[in-house]
């Protein structure tokens, strides 16, 4: 449905997006995730046609809409954008806002479509309200269906939850996902918030400094990050120091672990491997001990920050059931239970 090949974006000859390629299938929800200023919005604007790429190609439904020789205007792309601030017209009612993009249809058809869309987002009966008479979440839902009114091929959502309270965001993200899936819409969202990306998307692209580092499911980003930035950005975790021995094993303070030859490391290499909080198991009988430096109660779990008893006093995180109530300063037994080895050169 959407394909980007080697897309670059530049403003006044300064490149801010470099060589980005990915594809979104019909009915999929994608998300571009990255820190502020990494180039996510620029990519979205190029896909919408508000900006031209400086190199590469964008295709929607196998039709090239932007390359060196082609530029299809935004109106002709069958793409709709939901902006950060919803941009609902304050002087129009909910029904008028939604019907705005389909005003060329008959009054009867408009009314039917508005009713259908309001029912989709659970706002039947809200037709005559004005935007200021709606909550933030309700306004966001109206903005979504207004964008969907003319049945676009592709929906683009630019930080759609950023003006909402943080407690609301994840719930609304899950709700919007259900609505988009029900409508079988193809959508691409940008955000810097990974909880939103996880709640909404089938496939997530992590962007940093204008480059797409990995395009994969949330599971793969968390468990098989392809890059050190992705490993650090997604989820919690720390990098532990280790050395490669002559049996292709990692020798670390928390034990010796085999590594795959495909990693391409040699004996004596100094490396770092990723340790997630759920890889550290609290075990009173374990040979290794660590001191509780900090703790935060998370309901079912307690997240401990622990200092290892090695010369560097490396820190690790440990997610333990919260009924194990250890105080700051206590020493507790831990062992490492790694499912995948994620190793990077130092
Ligand atoms: N119209 C413009 N002219 C010049 N530079 C721009 C323009 N728009 C964006 N930039 C620059 O391009 C880079 C990428 O910006 P972009 O808005 O795409 O990032 P972003 O990841 O969406 O950031 P945020 O999450 O803060 O919105 C930034 O360095 C920004 O300053």
From TrEMBL:
Keywords annotated in UniProt: ATP-binding, Nucleotide-binding, Transport
InterPro entries recorded: AAA+_ATPase, ABC_SmlMolc_Importer, ABC_transporter-like_ATP-bd, ABC_transporter-like_CS, Mo/tungstate-bd_C_term_dom, P-loop_NTPase, Transp-assoc_OB_typ2
UniProt feature coiled coil, ranges: none
Native source organism of the sequence: Paraglaciecola aquimarina
Ranges where the ABC transporter domain occurs: 2-234
GO molecular function terms listed in the Swiss-Prot or TrEMBL record: ATP binding
Superkingdom of origin organism: Bacteria
Signal peptide span: none
Name of protein: ABC transporter ATP-binding protein
